[in-house]
Design goal:
The chain has 7 helices and 14 strands. By secondary structure, it is an alpha/beta fold. It has an 8-stranded mixed β-sheet, sandwiched between helices. The chain has a 6-stranded antiparallel β-sheet with strand order 9-14-13-12-11-10. The chain binds S-adenosylmethionine.
Length: 300
Amino acid sequence: MSSSIQEINPRRINKINFDNLVVEIGFGNGVYISHLARLYPNKNFLGIEISGESIKKLSRIIKRENLKNLYSIKLDAYWTFYLFLEDNSVYEIYINFPDPWPKKKHQDRRLTKLENLYLFSKKLKYNGFIQLKTDHFNFYNYTIENAKVLNCFEIIEYKNFHEEIKTKYEEKWLKMKRSIYTLKLVKLSEPKLNIPIKTIRRSESMSSLKIKNFIDFKKLEGKVFKIEEDLVVKFFKSFEREDEWMIETLLSENGYKHYFFTYLRKKGNEYVLSISSFSEVLKTEGIIKFIKWLSNLDTF
Ligand SMILES: C[S@@+](CC[C@H](N)C(=O)[O-])C[C@H]1O[C@@H](n2cnc3c(N)ncnc32)[C@H](O)[C@@H]1O
């Protein structure tokens, strides 16, 4: 549940439309973005985080200081940009000390991989910029190489860049006497090549189905199924009440992760299969396909 309207619930909105929008990806304890929000009351700030703890920390700051121009969303940065931000709408993007994922086998997790940088660049306004700070020289160079491939940025490398505010990780690395590398990528044009990106599609179809046969959720516990190439489901614990059954479900749709309870209810001689109303989900084609697939699963 959202604790305040400034914590945006991704399952309840269609677009994020703010004037003068500035974004910080992975804001950690929120000191940096809240500092900017205080300094620039005429801009709107959106902090994107996957950590619930970080969201709570920022919410406390927002509440305590009544910062009306600061919002947060708990969702992966890629999907936030992909689903909710308009092209050419973002003025500034800050990325401070992201995990560098130095091992090659983890490079797909890097925040500035080509696909992400491409998407971020599409969302930036002309002359808008991405500012990256990192202590990791290889990651810094990796980001520059990707920016060069897109060929749409002025690439500015700073030496001894000083800012009034320091993030938790910046303090940490400075204490350890590590160098800090700062990079600004200013958008001058649209990217010069099209990069294929992961997509998901919203759906308005009904996500509940009447079925004739009972599905024994107990037998699904711990099982993984590949419904389609990019649609994989994993089932966890199931629960039972009189004439009602639920099972914890993780559905990965092209990399987007839906967590919810699948719900089965007896209705007369039939059953109704749906997503539990306790779970808020982003209604997508994958969710609809999942319900259809499960309704036809007759192995059990
Ligand atoms: C190393 S911490 C840096 C935190 C803060 N920026 C600082 O400098 O102190 C990286 C942060 O990025 C967040 N993060 C990692 N991947 C993310 C993603 N894909 N989308 C949004 N946030 C992400 C993590 O939860 C974590 O809080």
